[in-house]
Amino acid sequence: MVTPVYNLPEDPADDAAAIEHWLAALPEQYVAGDRARLREACALLLGCRGRQTLETGETQVRYRLATADILAGMRQDADTLIAALLNGCLEAGDMTEEGLSQRFGPGIGRMVGDLRRIGQLANVEAVIAAKEQDRHEENLRRLLLGIAEDVRVVLVVLAERLHLMRSIKDLDEARRRKLATDTRRVHAPLANRLGIWQVKWELEDLALRYLEPEAYRRIAQLLGDKRVEREAYIAHVIALLKSKFAEAGVRADITGRPKHIHSIWRKMQRKGVDMEQIFDLRAVRILVDSIADCYAALGLVHGLWRHIPKEFDDYIATPKGNMYQSLHTAVVGPGDKSLEVQIRTWDMHRHAELGVAAHWAYKESKGADAAFQNRLVWMRQWMELLNEGEDDGDFLERFKSEFEPAHVYVLTPQSKVLALPRGATPLDFAYAIHSEIGNRCRGAKVDGRIVPLNQTLRSGQTVEIITQKNATPSRDWLSIHQGYLKTARARNRVRLWFKQQDYDRYVTEGRALLEKELARLGVEARLQLDPIAHKCNFHKGDDLLAAIGRGDVPAGQVARQLGDLAGPAEKDRVELEPEDLVTQRRDRRRKVPHRPGRGRQEVVAEGIDDLMTHMGHCCKPVPGDAIVGYITRGRGLTIHRRDCDNLRQLIAAEPARLMEVAWAEASPEAAYPVDLIIVAADRKGLLRDISAVFSEADLTLLGVNSSTDRTSDRATMRFTAEVRDMDQLETLQSRLRQIPDVISVKRPR
Asked: Does 739 have pLDDT greater than 90?
């Protein structure tokens, strides 16, 4: 329960007296050692802050004391209170984070440092497009959690905001609305996600008071009774229910709350109804052991008070889409006041509070982030332990060790929050802003200081990119070892830039490769290349030729498409472009028809029927490869690729054993094993990305062998898979080469 601070003397003139008054009023949970450390922290606060005042007219000392008092009401430990008291002392004095930790205990300095970094966010204004506002606010909430490696830092931030909102009534309207807007959009959702309901409700009510003053006053007047009176009413209802359940022998845990003003206003807005049609202004929750007890409890409630018609929902029999389960009913309670009652089992309650049914996950989350949500669950579990006085001491340490944030959240100079993978650099940041910013980047400032482009960023830092008009990317940026780029997006943008710069050269090289492949296949037709380019998702023929030159698209694949489109009347030339004709050699691959009545042969040799053949295990040829046969002793004909290294040795020893062969017409069911050697820069998830390509191509993997050279940080993997023909193999190789960090994909010879 969070209550307003009344533990300070009325006279605002004496901060020292206020400190003594507050220390004397501390709860008994703070032992002598804690009180001594808190007194020392107060003395340091008084020395650092003196008579400094805030925009509200309150002194810094009283502001920090009020924040610490709120945290004491939340049952926070002495370390949390000390961090709240010392927030700002790093700027005001010559203290350091290390010095504070040595003086007050491990971790205090880091908490105060995190609070300073969070405080700096309040000094900048973000200009965000309306369509990006939700994403920005979500990133800002995550930024606060990302900066705060210790969850207690977030609690200090929320306590400070709560006291500030209690104190802003005398500020000008524009300033009040600005603070109220930030509170509603950032701080209240944070409190909601952490399960600090009292803080969340009060923050929302205070924000509504300044954003919708007329609606706030009207609802407050219609409620009639004050919050204190409503809370007393709920306590009376709980007492009646406990007595009734004890008589019936039903074990239950009963809690309650009066609905806060913001929640009433939001429901009126959402449903378009007046306040008289809202029946959950006061609500109690009943937790029981089993589903049978849920319905028994429902009977007891309806037996005690009159049920309001049409105000009953059975979410146990029919769960919500997020698997939320509970019984909801509305009754006319004591004093003829409407009362909502929720009934659920303990398992249902845990699912609703910590599982996918939680309001913050179901209503607020814009995208799935399991790691982030698990981190929040642990935070809430720790808060519950604190509220129950059952913290085992190492829960928070286990949380910090197991849930290291996967992202960092950094700011632009305009205070827009960007999410980047953990380990990201200023150069990653530049490309996240815009490709042109990255391409023209020549330096970076972090928190106003020039830093190397490969420096690792931390959450809460403000990054400014220094650009030059004629600057261009460096090939060093693509080096894994120099650590300039962490994100695949940035690396791909750099690679794309270099590809575009060498466009003309790649077009020439691609044309030469295509001409060579057309000559090998013996295609002698006249066709335009543009239609093939459009089928391959390129704008024009030159783009396709450039892709061939870069190695992104296999020349054989394009050549075979051209051959398939060649009409019988056009046999002499292939037209790559209307003005550029290519004359090809007449070296067409011979098609051998399938011999009926006999088993289908993979290869044929002229003049020989029923030849026993088998594929060489050394080079593993597939249909489309240039092949030759080698006559073995007793095992028929072994088929090798013409570029096979083993074949060269055989030719040198016994050249007479060679026999010219050709591929027969391929069977649609045929599958040929093939080896691929992939060399890539080693990284987490590399094997997964490569395996995904094989899976998407619906290929059968026969074997995988991987090794990593730690000196060069390169991984060499050998995959054995079954393919139908060369077309499928070349498509597979092309897709593998497009995987980030893959250096080469080739077949062994």
From this structure: no
